[in-house]
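step=encode ok
step=design start
structure_in=
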């Protein structure tokens, strides 16, 4: 097992490198980089160069300094070339792309992600600041999905083919087919002051008077705010996990050892929870890390944006809009690393739950 883990860990290096190469190359062809963002803001704010050293005169004089064809940046016409060069140095674009990429690889290998272009804060500190919101959303969604899906899946397996199995399967399929963002908007319209009921808050994770609340008040306020986001992010995982549990139990129920247990006179409950449960739950328990990461990553962007939650998903969205490359690359690197490590943890969970599993023999 140690050799298998070592191979998987070594595979992380080329995988992360590939992720960085692809994203770095794509960014070179995407219009509207950070310098363009700054120039667009300057043009919209009028005269922003009153304090710029050596800059005097009117827009006509500026145009003489920098002709329409002398800059690669749209909207740079009329701005002093010294200012454009200063921006390039500040953002690191005065160096060739290959040198910038190699510097990024070296820095990321040391977990040095630099500083956000527009927030003046270290990317690592920014991620750590936003992470609790996303972890909270993903953790509660995963726990609720497991607590609901496992009993429901077991009941569906026991009553396979009955009317209960039929109508619950129909509900599950409908729930799985509904896009998460559409369900989130539906919850807002129905229960957050849309056209019907004002039961839950519209946005945020806590109320404005959070600091003045008692301990029980803070707990209640937290769950009051997180109810709709967790419900919206749980629905897809809930459907998948329920069907996975049902199919896993059905496969075990049909095996020979179950018939033997029944022949010995054990009750159906004793057979189900004394023999079937442990074997059927292997794949479900072992898959917990992957399910959590799936909810954590795939649902955070849309849900956090709709419910105005200040987490990693919203951070990534805003960074992409602003072309904040250090934040974009830093979060992609961290997410990729976490995802790869979680895949290894999932394999280890299989071995812990069922020691009979040997990945080295399977690879051989």
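sequence_out=
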């Amino acid at each position: 097992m140690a050799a298998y883990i070592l191979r998987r860990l070594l595979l992380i290096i080329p995988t992360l490198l590939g992720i960085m190469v692809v994203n770095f190359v794509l960014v070179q062809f995407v219009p509207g980089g950070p310098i363009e963002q700054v120039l667009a803001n300057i043009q919209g704010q009028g005269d922003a160069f009153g304090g710029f050293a050596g800059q005097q005169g009117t827009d006509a004089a500026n145009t003489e300094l920098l002709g329409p064809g002398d800059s690669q940046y749209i909207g740079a016409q009329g701005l002093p070339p010294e200012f454009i060069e200063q921006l390039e140095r500040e953002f690191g674009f005065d160096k060739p792309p290959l040198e910038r990429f190699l510097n990024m690889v070296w820095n990321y290998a040391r977990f040095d992600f630099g500083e956000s272009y527009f927030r003046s804060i270290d990317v690592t500190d920014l991620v750590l600041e936003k992470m609790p919101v996303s972890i909270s959303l993903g953790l509660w969604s995963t726990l609720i999905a497991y607590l609901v899906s496992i009993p429901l899946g077991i009941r569906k397996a026991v009553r396979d083919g009955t009317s209960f199995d039929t109508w619950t399967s129909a509900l599950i399929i409908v729930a799985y087919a509904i896009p998460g963002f559409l369900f989130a908007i539906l919850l807002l319209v129905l229960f957050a002051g849309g056209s019907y009921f004002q039961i839950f808050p519209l946005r945020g994770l806590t109320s404005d008077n959070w600091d003045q609340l008692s301990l029980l008040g803070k707990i209640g306020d937290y769950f009051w705010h997180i109810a709709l986001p967790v419900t919206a992010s749980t629905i897809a995982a809930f459907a998948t996990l329920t069907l996975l549990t049902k199919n896993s139990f059905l496969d075990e129920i049909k095996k020979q050892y179950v018939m033997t247990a029944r022949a010995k006179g054990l009750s159906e409950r004793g057979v189900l929870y004394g023999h079937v449960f442990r074997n059927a739950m292997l794949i479900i328990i072992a898959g917990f890390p992957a399910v959590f990461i799936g909810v954590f990553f795939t649902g955070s962007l849309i849900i956090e944006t709709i419910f105005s939650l200040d987490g990693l998903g919203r951070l990534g969205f805003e960074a992409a809009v602003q072309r904040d490359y250090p934040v974009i690359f830093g979060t992609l690197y961290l997410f990729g690393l976490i995802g790869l490590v979680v895949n290894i943890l999932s394999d280890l969970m299989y071995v812990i739950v069922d020691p009979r599993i040997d990945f080295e023999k399977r690879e051989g």
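step=design ok
step=annotate ok -> The chain has two domains: 31-96, 123-363.
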